[in-house]
Amino acid sequence: MVEDKFDNILNSLGFVNIGTLKYRINIGVWWHPQYYIHIIILPLGSRCLLKGFKDYFIKSIAEEGESWAREMGPLQDFLESSLPEIHISFSHFRDITSKQALLQIKRRSGKDLDIDIDDIAALQRQLEDKIYQFRSNEQIINFTDNSSDLMDSYIRNQSHTLKRQIKSMKEQIVQKKDKLTLFENLQRQYQEKGSAACYSFSFCSNLQVVESHYEFKDAALSIIKELQDLHRYQVSQKLNGGRLNIHIEEAKEPAITWIEQWFGGSFAPRQMTRAEKYFSMLQKAFEEQTMITAKDDINVDGAVKEDKKLLAAHIISAMVRRMDKTDKSGLMLENITARDMPINIGLVVSNGRATTKQCKLPFAKLNNFYTSGITGSGKSFTVRVIMEEVANYSGMSILVIDPGNQSAGLLVPEDREEIIDKYREFGLKEDSARGFKFDYYAPAFSFSRDLPSDLGKLARARSVISLKNLDDEQRCEYFADVVNAVFNACSDEESERPRLLIVVEEAHRFTKKRVVDSAKKAAERAEIATDRLMREGRKFGIISNCTSQSIKDYGRDFVTIRQNTPTKIFMNNSDREIDYAADFLGDGRQITRLKPGTGIFYNSSWGSIEVKVRPPFSKVWDFSEQDTMKIFGDKASIQQKLSPRAENLLAVIENHYKETNEAVNISQLGQITAITSKRALQQLITELEEKGKIQTYQLAERGRPRVIKPLRPEVD
To answer: What is the Cα–Cα distance from 595 to 605, expressed in whole angstroms?
Structure first.
């Protein structure tokens, strides 16, 4: 028969027949124990249909770490956008057994925790034997006349050894009793507050139709390759590869998936205890597949051992949200309340063209957000517009930390005609351009006022901190000090509403990956400060934005920005960002076609919205120190003074000119001053030049050396 030939081919490829269905139709189910793949065969006359399946389940805790419940929404987005066809099964059980509670404790600790009363009793018996031996030795010593013969010395040494062993065993018993008490308390807590869940999914190959056994083998091989490629390039790399903090395991037994379907998810934990001695394989598979999470905080001796996860709620919420995603952005645009703090970003884009519909987003629901885009994509304009919109709320504080000096433009109105001419397209008046009232600090600029001695005051103000002209170490130290102080100032009281927006421009410049070796320690402080801010800031009313060209600007060990920014803003970008965007937008290539000033705003609550961002009212420009002085006018001129190191360098340049009546060569200047760092020397020269104290120019001779001449009238 034709079916027999099909069976022979599947056997030759390593498949095993695990079931058939012979009612009205004839279906064969085959399993590959090496690739963990199902193939279903449906003969139809002279033809045959083939389809392959590969199954997975989520582990709450794996060797790589712990899965995060809040990543269930992004997981649903990924499965829908990246896999051609998916089947999802989910079960939730309110109660768990004592064995499962102990299993969860082992998973979280990563150690063998099988300590019971029998272990302690055995150790207690060993202790009693040692004590008996010690007392016997002591009696023997009492009968001797304290002579120094070999026997007496041996017995005394043995007593000392026994004494140390007795002390050690007593300590072990106390430790084991304490640990057993802790485990028993934890076990009770998990039984009272724990819940079990099973989440599995499978993806499918394309349906293959064959008319002969010659085509059959090619079709089967095609299915294997297709499923293997999906496994390798989608699940392994994009899920277990670290993009989402969710740990996926292949289903290595065909029975697991079928039980999911036959029994509506899985056996309940208490039911499984009845079948354990009869179906050990099933019990083992069930333990691997079941996630144990806390419905309420697990507390022991006043300390929280595990925060509540509410995994089932996250899964159901994510699945329901995905059932009708099409109109969510429209609903979000129409139903924003005043409490949501609406901000007007620009115009909604549809089919590649800007509409006349204003795009309003709920700032209070953005949570932390991340902005990426190549140079010229408009990411700085976009973040500036968000800051300007938030500034309309009188109760909101704003803190901008800028490694450059672009944010100084917040203080002055836009004055470029090519920008102002675009206002009309967005229904704005040409005289809408304006500056905003912000305190300005620039530690490297002599005219700038000093940062407040209590940096925590920045949490309740509107401030721009420019870190331009600082080296890597100074920049990261300032950042860590400011962020830590601001967080501490806010953490005394939780807040349901946002009260502080922190914008970090070029956030990658505060990471270990992007600084010189001597600044690694300072950058580590900055990373730790950022990590705490992103993880915990929201509950204290802090919303943070990090801006850079690509998510790949951040190292693998610094994933806080990726994992704790529910809102993503993608501007035009290249292949470095496409894969990351695909996890949220489905087709990551969308970002390559975005025009400058147009971005895709993603949040799992509303999906993705393409927006043409309005032009800012204030000026987005990287101001030099001299340009910034002009913003502050006479006040800046009065405060203008040189740093001590620049004063010393200027004195050397003036002395050299007085003695030789010649400009000094930069290389020669470095030798005279013993400044070995070219970068530090150049920073001082730049400071003097921007203050109008010196003039630098190149000589016409060979090599065109650069020289420096003082400009003070008394010198000339």
So the answer is: 25
